[in-house]
Each structure stands twice: as structure tokens, then as C-alpha cells.
Amino acid sequence: MSSSPPTVLLTGASGVLGTALLAELPAHCRVTALIHRCPCPAADDQFPGDLTAPRLGMDRETYRALARRVDAIVHCAAVTDFTSGPEAAHATNEAGTRAVVEFATDAGATPYHVSTAFVARHDLTRSRLGRDTGEAGARPEDYLDSKRAGEEVVRSSGLPSVIIRPSIVIGDSRTGDISAFQGLHGILLMLLRGMLPLVPLPATSLIDFVPQDVVARTIAALIAEERREGEVWVTAGPAALRAEQVLDVVADTCAELGLSTDMPRIVGADMVDRLIRPVFLAGGLPARALRRFDDMLAMTALFADAATFPTSLGELPGGPPPLTAARLDAVLRHSILYLAETKRLGDAAVRPMPVEVPA
């Protein structure tokens, strides 16, 4: 980077990580947002663009002018919907990443590519395990294949680059606020509404999630340090809560909210496949409910007795410390309260004012 204040190009500025990152980037950085649909007033500059179009959707003159200014690129934009299909996932997560890398080459800029820790679990999807996917519309394998391909684009470019792998990203650690609800929020909402009679997951499976501000602080620290290479895992690692602990937090928060919701029974996927789904669910549930259950089967397969993620938290100067189980418990509670308040469930008055969560 140059000796003058660095200019950071941010993709996905209106998304979960983009909005969190805008609040955490070093004050001396000048942030330029590449926007597609949503404006980004928090950025210093913004340019309309499209990751799937030539020159990122810009005319030649604008593209060249921007390339002369940019020192680093934080690539957060991605298709994360498991139901989007392989074409849409690869168009943004692979081809879009290729366009960003080409721009980085033209700009002589360092790409900070946001991937996902779950690329390490691409072999755990139900289809790859040879399990029936039923009526599921969710196909994690499409998303994971596209993210792995995106990482390969970055690695094969020959550019000095940093690959960042967060686990599940949830809301702000102090407030639970988030710009858009993610997959885990959908499962939490079904729990709050009493719509899950069972959870097809071993009780001791680790549910690795990280608050959005921790991911944003990690990326900000990488830029401040001018890190130009490596792979950074932003995960809870060994501190991740077990599935049974997550349900305990949900149950306690439901009680606080005045919601009389029975927690589901935890069962193994083998029992679901051999007995529960073919005997009790198939033909006995409305099609929409069965599809929702099969979607949950598809998502929870990525956690069932999976190996613990590595974590880089605590290793980066100026970055956030490692997460602890106590902090994750509090972080999850804040996210549940925010979700309940937004969906008008229970007594919203119990939601506390934002507080610092002890490390």
C-alpha cells in the first residue's frame, strides 16, 4: 500500500459483513463501495457495479480511474442462499470473484477474500454422504462448491492475497442487530415458534458461530497491519457451543420472553432416516412443513459430529481475542432477543440496552 491513506474497495457493502465492516475499518482508510442494488451512504464514495459484468459493470474510463486509486479490496459480496441453485452461486461466488481478482491485478491491490469455514466440510452434505435429500430445496453443496471455486480463483491468481474464513455469522455481539437474517436465524425462529418437534443432530455437535463485529474487527486488523497473505479462520473453534447448550440458551430466553415453547427432542440423523421420516413424517406432514424439515436436515448435516474448526482469533495484532463459551452464550442470547423483537414474539420489553459482552 502507498504511504498516503489507503483506499479500500468494498464489495457487498450493504450485506451483513459489509455493514459491520464499515463501522470497524481504520479511520484513516478511505472506503469506496461497489454497490449493485442498495446505496451505501456510510462509504466515502460509491460506484454502481455488477460482479457478473465486464469491468465490474463500469465503463472503461471509470474502471481505470478507480483502479488507479484502490490499494486493497475486501470482497464480501456473495450468494449465500442455499436454495439459489448452482448457476447463481457460481456466477457470483466464482465468476464474480474472478472479476474482482482481475480488478485487483489491474489496480495492484491486495484482495481480502471472504470465504467460509464450511469449505472444510464440503464432504458432509447429505448428497455426498449418500443420504436421501427428500424434499429439500436447500443444497449446501452448491454454495460450498462455489466458495471453494472462489478460493481457488484467488489462490491461482498469483496475487498476494488473504483468504478469510468465518463460520456462521450472527448479529452484533452487544445488541444482536443484523442487516439480514441468516440460516441460523431461521432455525432459531422455528424454535421460538415451537415449529421443530425434533432436531436431527447429536447433542454434542459443535454449533460454531461468530458475531458480525468480531469478523469485521478481524478484517479491519488485517488491513491495518497490511497483511498480504495467508488464511485466517474467524471461528469459535473449541469454544463453540454444543447443540444441547444452544437449545438451553433458547429455552432460557423463551422463558424470559414469556414464550411457552417446548424444546425439541434431539435425535441422530440415522434414526431420522431409518424410522422417523419414512414412518412418521412422510405422508403425515403438509408438503411445506416436510420441505422445511428436509431443509433443516440438509443444514444440520454440516454439524453432525464434525471436526472442530481451527481459529485464528487471538493471533492477529490489534484483532479480537479468542471467543469463550460464556461470551458465545451471551452473544446468542442477544441475537435471539433481537430476532424475537423484530418478529414481535413474546415480551419485547425484556430486551436489555446494549452492553459490552465480557471477553
Task: Describe this protein with a few key phrases.
39% helix, seven-stranded parallel beta sheet, 359 residues, alpha/beta, two-stranded parallel sheet
Written account of the structure:
This protein is of the alpha/beta class and 359 residues long. The protein has ten helices and 13 strands. The chain has helices at 16-22, 60-69, 86-107, 140-156, 183-192, 212-225, 243-257, 269-281, 287-300, 325-342; strands spanning 7-11, 30-35, 45-48, 72-75, 110-114, 162-166, 168-170, 198-200, 206-207, 209-211, 230-234, 241-242, 265-267. The chain has a seven-stranded parallel beta sheet with strand order 3-2-1-4-5-6-11, sandwiched between helices. Strands 7-10 form a two-stranded parallel ribbon. A two-stranded parallel sheet has the order 8-13. It is globular and about 65 Å long. It starts with 6 loop residues before the first strand and ends in a 17-residue tail after the last helix. The model is unreliable at 353-359 (pLDDT under 50).
